[in-house]
């Protein structure tokens, strides 16, 4: 089973997502966070599920439409570890500079 490592910056991503959800859709906030966390669990079994983007990075699409998110990660097969680098809403322009 693949190990999942979260970059420290992920905390800020989740804070930003949660703040937005609480401001606009407070009833959906817990379900949306569970959706993202559940997708990270999928990486444990299927680390290559995300679409390749560039420089060895992959994107895992979670949900769709206004409730969709994209998880940026890098999978390192020799150590069977997926390093999760960023999470953003599909409606955001891009990832924060890391």
Describe the structure.
The protein is an alpha+beta fold and 98 residues long. The protein has one domain: YaeB-like fold (2-Layer Sandwich). 33% of the residues lie in helices and 30% in strands. It is built from two helices and five strands, in the order βααββββ. The protein has helices at residues 10-24, 29-45, and strands at residues 3-6, 51-52, 57-62, 69-76, 81-89. A five-stranded mixed beta sheet has the order 1-5-4-3-2. Strand 2 and strand 3 form a beta hairpin. The longest helix is centred in the middle third of the chain and has 17 residues, at 29-45. The radius of gyration is 13 Å and the shape is elongated. The model has no long low-confidence stretch (mean pLDDT 88).
CATH architecture: 2-Layer Sandwich
Helix and strand string, N-terminal first?
A: EHHEEEE
Principal-axes shape call: elongated
Low-confidence stretches: none
**Based on helices, strands and strand pairing, what is the structural class?**
alpha+beta
The level 1 CATH classification is Alpha Beta
Name of the CATH superfamily:
RelE-like
Rg = 13 Å
Number of distinct helices: 2
How many strand units?
A: 5
Mean pLDDT: 88
Note the gap between the termini. Answer: 27 Å
Q: Tell me the strand order in the biggest sheet.
A: 1-5-4-3-2
Percent strand equals 25-35%
Major sheet characteristics = 5 strands, mixed
* Count of separate structural domains: 1
Percent of residues in helices comes to 25-40%
From the 3D structure, determine the CATH topology. YaeB-like fold
